Structure formats: C-alpha cells, structure tokens
Amino acid sequence: MSDKDASANLQALDMLATMVALVRPDGSCLFANTAFETVMQLSRRAVERSNLIDWFADAARLREAMEGVSRNAYSSSRFDALLRRVSRPGEEPLPVHVIVSQTDRPDQLLVELIESAQQARQDREERTLDQVQATKELIRNLAHEIKNPLGGLRGAAQLLQLELQPTELGAELCEYTEVIIHEADRLQSLVDRLLAPHRKAQVVGDVNIHEVCERVRSLVLAEFPKGLKVLRDYDISLPDFRGDREQLIQAVLNIVQNAAQALQVRISDGDAQITLRTRVARQVTIGKQRWRLALELHVEDNGPGVPPEIRDRIFYPLVSGRDGGSGLGLTLSQTIVQQHQGMIDCDSEPGRTDFRITLPLP
Ligand SMILES: Nc1ncnc2c1ncn2[C@@H]1O[C@H](COP(=O)(O)OP(=O)(O)OP(=O)(O)O)[C@@H](O)[C@H]1O
Ligand SMILES: [Mg+2]
Prior knowledge:
Elements: H1 3-12, E1 19-23, E2 29-32, H2 34-40, H3 44-48, H4 59-70, E3 76-83, E4 94-102, E5 109-115, H5 116-163, H6 168-199, E6 205-207, H7 209-223, E7 228-233, E8 241-243, H8 245-262, H9 264-269, E9 272-286, E10 289-301, H10 329-339, E11 343-349, E12 352-360
Parallel strand pairs: 7-9
Antiparallel strand pairs: 1-2, 1-5, 3-4, 4-5, 6-8, 9-10, 10-12, 11-12
The protein binds adenosine-5'-triphosphate (ATP) and magnesium ion.
Magnesium ion binds near residues 254, 257, 258 and 329.
C-alpha cells in the first residue's frame, strides 16, 4: 500500500463514532482518530505524543493484550476497561469496551474503544426498532380483524333499535342497544387510531423543525393556559429537511402533551416547565444506519418521570400509566419519526424527563 493510500485510510477512520488508535506494541500512539480526540479532549498532536497505557486504570490488562496480539498468540483481544481522561482529572473514568487487533504490519496494532454507554444505547435502539416492526404487523392484522365484525355488530344493534316498540319496555331495551352502539363506536375510533399512521400517505415537503416546535408550543399552551411554561432553546442554524410537516407536528405534540399531562401537580403549583431544545448531531447511528448529520429535538420536563414499571415499554401500543390513557400516543410518534428514518428515545428520572427525537439531515 502506498503512503497516500495509507493516509486516506487513516482519514476514513475520522468518520467513525468509535475511538480508534494505531499504536506500537509498547502502546505509543502513531495515530488517533477524531472521536478519540473529542473524548480525551486533547489535540491530535497531544494524543499522538502519548502512550495509550497511561490512560487506562488497569494498565496491566492492556499491556498483556497488546503483547499477546503482537506476538500472534491471538489475532485480537477484547475486554472491558476504564479510560482515564487526563485532561479532566476530576472526572470519573469512562467505561469502555476495548478491542486490540493486528494490522498488516507486525509493528502496529489497532486499538478500538467503544463507550459502554454508547454500546448499550445502540443495542437498545436496535431492539426498539425490531419490536416496533413486530408490533406494527400485529396491530395492523388485529385491527383489520376487529373492524369488520364490529361494523356488523353496530349495524345489527341499530336494526334492533328500529324494531323496538315505543313502549316502556321498548325504551328500556333501547338503552341496551345504545350501550352497544356507543361502545362499538369507541372501539371503532381506537382501531382507527391504531391504523392511522399506516394508512395515510406521506405529504412530503420542506420542513423547518422550529416551525413544528412553535405550532406544538401554541397548541399545548392553548390547552394548558395556566401554570405551564414552555421554554425554547433553539439552534437556529439547523437546516430544513424533507418530511411530512403535519405528521411531525402530531409526533411532537403527542410527546409534549404527555409531558404536560405528567406535570399536572406542578401545573397546579404553577412551576411546571417544558423545554424544547434543538441541537445538531454529527455521525449518528439510527438503528443500523449511519448519518453524517442529524438534528436532535429534546422535549424536557420537570415532572415526576415515567413510572419505572412501564419505562421499558412506553413505546409499545396500549401501554399507559395514565388514567384514561389509551397508550397510543408514543407508538404513533415513534412510527411517524421512523417513517422519517429517525428515532425517539427517552431518558427519565424524577424531576427530569427527556424525550429525544433524532432526525437525519441532508
Ligand atoms: N413526560 C412524561 N413523564 C412521565 N410519564 C410519561 C411521559 N411521557 C409518557 N409517559 C408515560 O408513558 C405512557 C405512555 O404514553 P402514550 O402517549 O403512549 O400513551 P398515553 O398518554 O397513556 O395515551 P394516549 O397518548 O394514547 O392518549 C403514559 O401513559 C405515561 O405514563
Ligand atoms: Mg399520550
């Protein structure tokens, strides 16, 4: 390989979200990618003057791995370790998964570090995507199965009602048929909501995320005019993107409405707060796909947090922790955002709940 090819290869490593370094078997750094610099908060020159071993809480484990790989006892070695960030002495060391592997040169080793939290998040996202696919299928079939008999049921109750005589008994029986019709209608609208995101065709146009936020903000403030503040923290440099504006408004609205509903107590106390925050994100992985640029919209509230017993399942249909909730809001939002190649996830503790919508940008 020519030197030019080699340097092009090294540059390609800068696109990765995981930290990668090329080192000599003694740990001295030959190259470190951008992700490495960012996490260590050191300039590339400083990184490249360092010895990797100095950064590990358990240096012996790394030394042993590099030694084993370089004398070909094994071609690669994986282990968990703690990375010390020298530039930030007060900070906790960062848990990472380390992979040491051979390169085509015996005097050079490749060391990859994956943040454990990042790994856990990626695993969780992939699981969510798979689950959403599976439940989507189930819902669609089930909803169709319910719809037809339900129509029959309602029609029959109506005919029955027409047959009833205007006597006292007839009026009493009428109440029963009313119940059937009413409940059938309720079920019908539930089924319609279940099917809605799959039925409507997308109307694609240029979408400005802040226009979406502003619409949602005014809708929610109209619904909760007292005791609730909706703060904005926008990165106005974010570009427009292609998408279905109305659907995205619906998706964000469901999330902000949930936050407002969770804030009931604070709303009566007058210190309820929701923040809409937009940020740019680089080199993000959504599901299995990687994007150079994305936007993040955080919906943050100071409410009690998602009840722990449903925390892992809030994006599932019919999961609700709220009296009178149908448990469809978040399912719908997730479906809409996924139709835009994006992803919603949630981080919640009492006093701070953060729903993050990530959407790829052109
Ligand atoms: N910001 C939040 N704070 C606390 N809990 C939340 C928050 N957002 C969602 N939840 C919990 O997640 C559950 C599921 O939300 P989802 O929007 O899917 O359904 P729902 O609000 O119960 O019903 P629907 O939206 O269909 O009327 C809620 O019932 C609530 O318990
Ligand atoms: Mg809801």
